[in-house]
Amino acid sequence: MGRQLVLLVLISFCSSTLFAQEPETKKPDSEKKEEQQEKKGTGLESILPKPIIVINVASVERILSDIDFIFELAGRPEIAEIASASLANVNDLEGIDRNRNLGVELYLKTGLIPQPVPTMYLPITKVRTFLETLEKLIPGDEETIKKDTDRDDLYVINGRRGESIIRLQDDYAHMLFQGVENETSLDMISSRDFGDPSQKLQNLTADYDLAFKIDLNAIPELMRTTFLGFFRTAIETQLQQRDGESKAAYEFRRMSGKQNLENIEYFLSEGQEMVFGGRIEKEAKRGVVDMLIKARPNSDLARAVKNIPGKASYFSVITSRENLPLAISASMNLARRDRKIYQKYLDYFEKQLSEILLTEEERLQNTNSMQQFFSPVKTMVDKGHLDVFAQLASTPTKKFALIGGIKVAPSSNLPAALLDIINRIDQLPDNKTHIFTNAETVQGIALHQVQPDIKTADDKQQRFLGGVPSLYIGADNEVIWFAMGTEIAVAALNEAIETINTATPEARKEQRTAPGQIEFHIRPWLNLFSEAEIQESGVMKILDGAFQKENDLILVTTQPTETGVRTRLQFDEGYLKLLGISISKRFDRNQERREEQRRTRKRAEQLEKNLGIQDN
Fold it and tell me: Cα angle at 167 between 132 and 169, to 5 degrees?
């Protein structure tokens, strides 16, 4: 089943759509010849010279090897063996080179509305056997594949759905997709130099089993500008104030919408290409998915991403703790453009909170608590360094506690400013929470407790947090600390701050994580449930069988590269095993359903036979 699925995705889908268009109205040969002469000079020019999108598969064998590996981890290697026999239905892919890359290239036909022109490239070994395999993949039996009478590198496919062309170059077959077979695209297939995909895409093939590349350089400036114009108009139309929408909500939505538009414009002007790629590392028993952005040389984006790594995080000695249910950390330098963006949002939140909590006279004072609270945050951003962390810690009671901190510029006014803001929130007429100032103290830092108006914890709160959760927030002169949970959250935060305070200067200077990092372990979540609960749930039982403490990590990191920036998703063996188990379960259900259908038909046939005997 697994190999057959790959075949359908990589070969059958593409081939089955090659000829699914209605035949064009026949024209007199003289008229058709005149049109061909008119378009011959301009046809190739109307399709961009480079593909804007490439989907590259390293090789059929690499993918099949990945599938075998996944089923082996799941303890079901026989499924891959059973599926191997199904390749006989498609001539065992004879004529296709299983050890070279294959895939799809999408070109653009220029015009008022650009039209996609997708083509497929397949590595071939023997032309005749490849054509026999292709005939088995083509839907229906009315198509014929014949060699062009004038050229050895062209084969013409004729049938009730129209005409298409196969172009042979550098031991590859290039073919058009559904609905794009016209004079211009057929001329492109027959005349263009596509190059050798095994050479021009060798980096994608070497790095990834499957990759998706967007080449921004292939899009002309005029087309890019036109697209942005349409997109900007559509976005601005959506940014009008809605009926019943508050002024604050509208301002925030409009600000965010404009910022998203600016980000897209920035990426299209500063970026060169984007790649999404994945592979399975069998020796390490893990999967890797990358998103790479390559910046234009000497661009603002190139300079910005090069400077992402900053000094060691203030929280570095605790951000590297292992086996946490969830951990998020960021310690990076901010580009000047990003600083302006963060400052804009901070100004918005300061303004909104000031209007709610301060009087008009107080808002005019430069020493009000809101200004004293936001000022060190803004100063830190202005200096160009972001340093934050948040962790979902698993406590000895197997309950979770959320803790975190935000590094700000040193300010002796920060603790008092926070206390004043908390007191003002407590005095709001519509405040429905219970607020306790100086409720707890951790390492000399006062924590203020914000408790929801809930008397009894629900099942989820009890299971995950151990009771009704409260928000604890406090500050020293350079960090805003927070915790969420029951009293165990306070203990977890106290332990984290103590670890930082007692660390040696050398330890605190060491950066142990990527500039941006997210870490997730699933095993601690499973430990929240009893063995009986796990056995009673089919899904929980599968998860329990797939994951152990050593194979349950999902790690997301953001790092600069030589030419841009890379965000990597890395997942441990347990997730590959889970994928194999899930597919195996589905395979088993399909087999059981077919067997039940077979038995039903057999009973029906036997019943008809018995009724026939009785009638006689």
Answer: 105
